[in-house]
Specification:
Layout: H1 4-38, H2 44-52, H3 54-72, H4 112-133, H5 140-162, H6 168-173, H7 181-199, H8 220-240, E1 242-246, H9 248-251, E2 261-264, E3 269-270, H10 272-293, H11 298-313, H12 321-346, H13 354-372, H14 389-417, H15 425-430, H16 440-454
Antiparallel strand pairs: 1-2, 2-3
Length: 455
């Protein structure tokens, strides 16, 4: 590190990202509590372990190849300016690989590990989005395969395309998604929907005439505390989406002028002060409308707060606080209505409303940002398309359908074809925590009792 100012900037940046990782850890704690609170008692341990073990599996795979994809594919497999999958020492691209040093701590690199860690926590988050929607019927191994797929492959590809200062979607489409409405949430919700179509509803979820039965959360306290922990973790999430300080030499003469500044991941200027306004206003809009549209239902009220933040996230670096408030409210209103229609029309059993809160709201967030930020620069560099409705809508489609729904559906179909996706009927009836299936007589008796309870 040359010079005192550069050294201080580097150390501050290192500590900044380290703190965001610690705060984002609370998102995963919140998801674990939230899912257990929604699941029935006989499935608590399975639900908890399913979501816990995604953390080491995604971490290992993200270390060895997920992070590589982010730096290898900003221009698609072979799209735009000839860049593609090949990394080489000539371009210096290998400096971004966490395992590039031969061994031990690299004292010359203070940034790669913490930046990698922040992205890893994003990976955990997107995998956990899928986890909650599938509870009480999916096999743990099947979910872990899906978690690795989205956590270390599909979402990091969409980040390379649309959440990278050199991404082709930013260059060609003017795609803008500062705090990941599409990049994390839409792809998570889209993947969940693709898997749910193949997985099918929980036993007893729909009556013979197709009317849905309400499976209320078993522990509303856990749901409440879990969602508030997710809200808390999102402060770290938002901060980690920023570059804390950039010197004027990096982007001088472009959008930022000559001042040192914080930027989004696209290197466009923003402030923590501005996103504090907008985070709290979008959270409030979502909570208020969630309460009203669900007629005071606690589950959808708390989920509405999260939906409000997600809907406004794409443009919360630039929105006025009043815009953020109304966007958050509109997002949960549309998502709640769409969730209920899809549930009744297509018999989709999304146990935690993840497709609505993350998928529909994430997609809507991309579309809204395209209209409301129309004409804003997508990058400080010359030659990039400006933000526009078509570009952001196409981007939302790519996130939700192309990299979300389609891979989720395909992998689920393959797993289902091998009998690996869903637990047997008997296991689902007596609970996924059941430990005495080898006792056939006891198992039969438990199944009989459970089947009577469904009638």
């Amino acid at each position: 590190m040359d010079g005192n100012l550069n050294a201080l900037t580097t150390l501050f940046t290192e500590f900044y990202y380290w703190v965001t990782i610690v705060i984002m850890f609370l998102i995963h704690v919140g998801f674990c509590m939230y899912e257990v609170g929604v699941s029935r008692r006989r499935n608590h341990l399975h639900t908890l372990m399913k979501n816990t073990m995604l953390a080491p599996l995604v971490t290992i795979t993200f270390f060895f190849f997920g992070w590589w994809l982010y730096w290898a594919m900003p221009n698609g497999p072979f799209i735009y300016q000839g860049k593609g999958l090949i990394l080489d020492g000539v371009t210096g691209a290998n400096q971004y690989l966490p395992w590039a040093p031969k061994m031990g701590v690299n004292l010359q690199d203070h940034i790669t590990g913490v930046f990698w860690g922040a992205f890893l926590l994003f990976s955990w988050t997107v995998a956990s989005i899928v986890s909650g929607s599938l509870i009480e019927r999916v096999k743990s191994g099947a979910f872990w395969i899906i978690a690795v797929m989205i956590g270390s492959v599909t979402w990091i590809i969409d980040a390379a395309w649309g959440w990278h200062f050199d991404g082709w979607m930013v260059k060609l489409l003017g795609y803008h998604d500062a705090y990941a409405s599409g990049v994390i949430h839409a792809i998570g919700g889209g993947t969940a929907l693709g898997v749910l179509i193949v997985l099918g509803p929980r036993l007893g979820r729909f009556m013979a005439d197709g009317t849905p039965r309400e499976f209320a959360p078993q522990n509303q306290w856990l749901v409440t505390v879990g969602l508030f922990l997710i809200y808390t973790g999102f402060w770290g999430f938002y901060a980690a989406c920023n570059v804390p300080i950039i010197s004027p030499e990096v982007i001088a003469g472009q959008v930022t002028g000559t001042a040192w500044t914080a930027t989004t991941i696209y290197l466009t200027p923003t402030t923590l002060s501005g996103i504090t306004f907008n985070f709290l206003m979008s959270l409030s809009g979502g909570l208020m409308v969630g309460y009203l549209v669900s007629k005071g239902n606690p589950f959808w009220t708390y989920s509405g707060g999260l939906a409000g933040v997600i809907t406004a996230s794409a443009g919360n670096d630039l929105y006025h606080p009043v815009q953020a408030f109304f966007i958050g409210g509109l997002g949960i209103y549309i998502a709640y209505k769409l969730h209920n229609w899809v549930e009744r029309r297509f018999k989709i059993d999304d146990a935690v409303g993840a497709v609505a809160v993350h998928g529909y709201c994430g997609f809507l967030g991309c579309v809204f940002a395209g209209f409301l930020l129309w004409g804003y620069p997508s990058s400080p560099y010359e030659g990039y398309a400006t933000v526009n409705p078509l570009g952001n809508t196409i981007g939302g489609v790519i996130m939700f359908f192309v990299l979300g729904f389609i891979p989720g559906w395909v992998v689920a179909k393959i797993l289902d074809g091998f009998g690996l996706l869903r637990v047997p009927r008997a296991v689902e009836l007596i609970g996924l925590d059941f430990k005495s299936l080898n006792d056939e007589e006891a198992a039969r008796e438990d199944v009989r009792r459970a089947e009577k309870a469904l009638v």
